Amino acid sequence: xxxxxxxxxxxxxxxxxxxxxxxxxxxxxxxxxxxxxxxxxxxxxxxxxxxxxxxxxxxxxxxxxxxxxxxxxxxxxxxxxxxxxxxxxxxxxxxxxxxxxxxxxxxxxxxxxxxxxxxxxxxxxxxxxxxxxxxxxxxxxxx
Length: 143
Prior knowledge:
Blueprint: E1 11-18, H1 21-31, H2 35-38, H3 40-44, H4 55-69, E2 76-86, E3 95-107, E4 112-122, E5 128-139
Antiparallel strand pairs: 1-3, 2-5, 3-4, 4-5
């Protein structure tokens, strides 16, 4: 989809994803090896009472499903930035549902523009667990 075809507030549904315990532990051991993510006994003494998913893993699970939608197709030039915020812990077995919303369009030059998407991810209880603001460079139509 070309930059000119993208509309502000356009919503992209993202397929729900389950946070599986084995994937959570594998990811945590590789990339976020702290007791809160891998040690059940330690986590039982925290306010969460059990291990929680690394925040980046929670985001990446949602992001992977978003990428399958491929709204930009071959018109995507490159990512520009991303900013993730976490609001609630994510546990093994949680199912995250999400949507991406076009939150800003910036006309950059004759060849491309910047599309800002805000992703909202909710757990199975409807609680917002994370949001992400991502920017991408997207081709314009050749005139």
